[in-house]
Amino acid sequence: MENEIKTKINWYPGHMARAKRKIQEALPLVDMVIELLDARAPLSSRNPSFSELFSRKPCLTLLTKCSLSDPKAVNRYVNLLKRDMDLLVPIDCKTGTGIKNVAPAIRTLMAEKIERDEKKGIKRPVRAMIVGITNVGKSTFINTLAKNRRAKAEDRPGVTRKNQWFTVPELGIELLDTPGLLWHRFDDQDVARKLAMLGSINDEILDQTELTCDLLAILRRKYPELLKERYRAEWTEDDSDYDLFQIIGRKRGFLRSGGEIDEDRTAAVVMDEFRAGKIGRICLDD
Ligand SMILES: Nc1nc2c(ncn2[C@@H]2O[C@H](COP(=O)(O)OP(=O)(O)OP(=O)(O)O)[C@@H](O)[C@H]2O)c(=O)[nH]1
Ligand SMILES: [Mg+2]
What we know:
Blueprint lengths: L13 H13 L5 E7 L11 H4 L5 E6 L6 H11 L5 E4 L11 H8 L1 H9 L6 E7 L5 H8 L18 E5 L4 E5 L11 H10 L9 H15 L1 H8 L9 H11 L11 H13 L11
Parallel strand pairs: 1-2, 1-4, 2-3, 4-6
Antiparallel strand pairs: 5-6
Helix pairs in contact: 7-8, 8-9, 8-10, 8-11, 10-11
Bound molecules: guanosine-5'-triphosphate and magnesium ion.
């Protein structure tokens, strides 16, 4: 298994190319951009085309899903990333962490515009476009701020297909939900694999056993104790990632009639448990 050439991941469906055009067309309508990064992979979840695409707009960066990520790593990334970003705020929409800091950050970033408007006697909401890769939590973030407005949000990539406005009058802001964007070719396949682990790439185009072995490779290197605790698994240096995958399948009793492990079931369970945070708080990026 470990000697096999890995399947190359590429996922840039037609709807994403169209969505990118629509996002470009909508840019003149907004005052600022809010980019969401996944706290479990803050570097890998940055779309490299965004810095150019949004270079003319002030940008608030949100490091989201913090409750699922390693708190030490989140701190390190906040310090590292804020150097080259206008403003960065760590949040979590499930636990509510950091949400109260978002509106003040928007006002700080838009202070000049707000002051200019006030001098002219105009009261106009700040209009922000919410952008990020697929499944990072854009629609969930909008629902968290806009409370009663419902943007469709689900745990699979490509849920939002159209730009859609949501107003939050109590905060004086209007938010444009946009479809998640990936990029045309993943030069770095490690990045592509991490995005697949986060659920940002269509699971149906991936070999799930291979992806789970890649996840286990990261976990055994960075979080061996969490892995041992969750699966009561023991392994040695000599065991390959695939051997470890087999050990876990066996421990869980996912066996077929011939006594081999059920690979599909093992992969699905390990991947689900990782995504739900059951293995622990994990950051995939180094
Ligand atoms: N634990 C946790 N889960 C979150 C958070 N934000 C979003 N999620 C979950 O992540 C999944 C994707 O959320 P969406 O809001 O649909 O993501 P999106 O960026 O709008 O996705 P697309 O529209 O497909 O691009 C959902 O299952 C959410 O419940 C968060 O802060 N913490
Ligand atoms: Mg969405």
